[in-house]
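Supplementary Text 2. Reproducibility record for the structural model of the 115-residue chain.

All settings were left at their defaults, and a single model was retained for analysis rather than an ensemble. We include the record here because the model underlies the residue-level annotations in Supplementary Table 4.
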Amino acid sequence: TRKKAIVLVLGDVGRSPRMQYHALSLANNDFDVCVMGYDGGKDVQPRQELLDHPNIDFKFIGQMGSLSKIAQAINNRILRLLVYVFLAAFKLLFQILQLFFLLAFSAGSYELILI
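Retained model, structure tokens:
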């Protein structure tokens, strides 16, 4: 049976050439690779080599909106700071839970996690 690896990109997959090369190297050395990270949209796609590789699968992480845009809409400085801190804590918790569920339930079993 083939070995499985997860390459976890803490950002847009397409903007991380080093992690793309790691995923490609693992896939070329008989690993089934699951690449997890943000989808950069149409402008920032992973290398075509990765998209076409039969041993590489992508699971994109959902993104939350910009915290600064939400907080800037508030006129009171103290209230704006409190809202920003609350939203930042919520975003951090959201990302932790999202990664936990992806790794625990969606990715299956694996021998290697590369972050």
